[in-house]
Fold these 2 entries.
Entry 1:
Amino acid sequence: MPFFASGQPIRTALAPTYGNLRITNDSLLKNYTNITLHWQFLVNGLVRQQGSAPGLTLLPGHSRTLRLPLKPPAPGEESYIKVEYRKPLRNSPPLATQTLPLTPWGGDTRIPATGELSFTDSNNVFSIGSPTLQLSFDKESGWLLQYTVKGQTLLADSNGLRPALPAPPHLQLFSTSTGSQMVIVRTEYTVPDLSCLLHLSYMVNSNGALLVESTLETDTTRQDSILHPIDRFGVNWTLPTGADSLTWFGATDSIPAIHKATAPTAVPADNVRWCDIYDSTGKGLRLTADSNFLQLHISSLRTHIDIDSHLPSHPALPIHFHYSFKVTPLLTETPHQPAKPI
């Protein structure tokens, strides 16, 4: 649905043809002449296109169609059109403003093959390597122990990434699927206190892109499966040393926007689409959510981050919660910059 203040005289809607706007003068008495429409096309929280259409006339109670030269977003990109109507007078307040959702967030969590990988399995540690990457797992706990890309450490210690639930999980199975350009690590846990099973897997390529996929479901082998309180479903990530800045795209209200924070600020962030965590040089990591979004809580940017999935308010048996997110190393890229206001 569109987001705008009630009682505005000019109403905008998306026309059936892509890029067309249907503009309506809701007043039966007021005639608007020589007004200017300013617009922004926001994709994943950033302004991709913007422009203006001057000299518009809107007759009382009438509508007109205006075409904007919008370039279609890629599949999975979330996009909005923000419009503002003004008279040609200098410093005049806007007659109306409105934000129209165009395409929903899909979350690009693909991990493409990027080169050759090697792997070793010894002393209860499974390691994956390339000229760029060093990644290690503890086979007794299933935890990710090491994550280094081009010498950049993305985990602060050996407890770097581990499942987070209101009850402790117990590892039952650690398995791997190895290929020359892609490796998948699968861990399966029982969670007796919740009568649940946890499936947590990791897919990695030679550039260090990592897909973390998690599923929590009712353990149907248990005769006493009941619905226990579940207030967390996610992972804890011990942040890389030096991380002190955070930029994310998420919805703290109806419309998602770009937000920023710096250490030592505590940050709770809901409905997050993507998030960059980086140091003063711009190095760090980027989290990209699937269509389920992420719930983040950072007690301090110099310690760790809780990465959770949204849980329904009133879950019912059988439980089946699923979400995934992609981790992309930030090595030479500039972190996202906030969109400028219209």
Entry 2:
Amino acid sequence: MPQVIASLTYDDVDAAITWLCDTFGFRERVSARVAHEGVTYHAEIEVGERGLIMLGPPFSDRSSPRTHGGTTLMLVAYVDDIQAHFARTREAGATIMAEIEDTFYGDLTYRASDVEGHHWMFSQRVKDIPPEEWDWAPGS
């Protein structure tokens, strides 16, 4: 297991799994799905070779971004071919928050929102730029 795992809340966990796998190319860990009376209470999706995200429904202390009206986090996932990933994401109808751009730290990135409003940034490292050579300003 990874040392840090994100746990995201979705109003419809089953639909979110399908959407995340179809749109972003994630893979469900089928043996990890736990359901009771037709409601999925726990599921896991794999992101690349080492990433893992747990999914669950709302509880008294947490809600989905769609229900809550916003989110306070962005998940970052590295992909091998950002152009192909971006094309698949756009074709699937995801909300594109920012087009592919070249960053001051050597990545190509784009941002998208998922089916219930979680924010994602997808990145591909294209060159290693040491921090002392970054040309950036706070907030950029």
